[in-house]
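Section 5: illustrative case.
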């Protein structure tokens, strides 16, 4: 696949501050904002493949269109992991394959960054997604990163994972640690090579943005193998006051506690400008006369006005 313009894979490598890492509890979130810095992954040193998938997700009956990505450092298996247990592992061992070297996980995987001559750690964030800092305000739930592998299932309630039931629990996500440009047009306004374009704070006019998430205890390992090994999640995220998992949704979602935290992007993001769509609400030709004669003229106008209002709302 050929990238065009500034299209590519970007990693959050932090700003070289103590606050680069993801905050793991309410106290850390109160102290300071997480420092964010997205830089382009060096595709001359990192291989990648993209897939368009149609799959069920989040226990909804409808299918989702999902963009999947596979990435690995060239001439390396540093992103590979095989749990040293179970039928799959034993089957590989019987075939004489050297799989034990893939038995370690890394919650801060390294990556090559363009114009940097050494590997940089990737930092995930505590956010479910930077494109919606206040999900509750839009009638949505969640807001926090479900910080372990496995089925996303009942998120944000219970103790869900971040993907599908076939995922290893100990392969933890790096929420928004890696982002990919998805483009439907070329450089029509500002250059996509500008690192300020489409940042998570674009449109806010500030370097810092406040995010909100429903309080729960996310990412606690419960898989029998992890329990037996004494493994704990280095990214376990506790947004509660008592450390307990909220197993079920409350009767009144609006009354559930919300925790806020900030991200500092180090620069003010910019959005792509566009020419606002203008609608002519009047039907053309004889259809207009017929509509007026039939008393349906106002239906045409009101319908067009509704479309215009929705487009205006979308533009914000």
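Designed sequence:
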């Amino acid at each position: 696949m050929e990238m065009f313009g500034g299209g590519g894979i970007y990693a959050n490598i932090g700003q070289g501050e103590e606050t680069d890492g993801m905050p793991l509890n309410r106290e850390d979130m109160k102290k300071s904002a997480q420092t964010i810095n997205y830089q382009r992954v060096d595709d001359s040193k990192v291989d990648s493949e993209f897939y368009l998938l149609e799959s069920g997700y989040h226990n909804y009956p409808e299918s989702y269109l999902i963009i999947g990505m596979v990435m690995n450092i060239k001439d390396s298996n540093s992103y590979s992991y095989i749990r040293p247990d179970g039928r799959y592992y034993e089957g590989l061992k019987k075939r004489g394959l050297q799989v034990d070297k893939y038995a370690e996980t890394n919650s801060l995987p390294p990556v090559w960054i363009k114009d940097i001559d050494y590997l940089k750690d990737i930092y995930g964030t505590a956010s479910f997604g930077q494109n919606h800092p206040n999900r509750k305000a839009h009638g949505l739930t969640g807001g926090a990163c479900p910080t372990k592998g496995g089925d996303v299932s009942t998120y944000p309630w219970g103790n869900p994972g971040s993907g599908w039931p076939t995922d290893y629990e100990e392969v933890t996500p790096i929420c928004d640690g890696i982002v990919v440009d998805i483009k439907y047009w070329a450089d029509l306004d500002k250059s996509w090579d500008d690192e300020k374009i489409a940042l998570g704070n674009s449109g806010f006019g500030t370097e810092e943005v406040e995010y909100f998430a429903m309080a729960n205890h996310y990412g606690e390992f419960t898989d029998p193998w992890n329990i037996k090994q004494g493994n704990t999640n280095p990214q376990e995220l506790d947004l509660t006051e008592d450390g307990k998992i909220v197993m079920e949704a409350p009767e009144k979602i609006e009354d559930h506690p919300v925790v806020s935290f900030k991200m500092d992007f180090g620069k003010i993001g910019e959005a792509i400008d566009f020419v606002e769509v203008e609608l002519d609400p009047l039907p053309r030709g004889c259809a207009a006369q017929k509509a007026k004669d039939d008393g349906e003229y106002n239906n045409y106008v009101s319908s067009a006005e509704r479309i215009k209002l929705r487009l205006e709302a979308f533009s914000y």
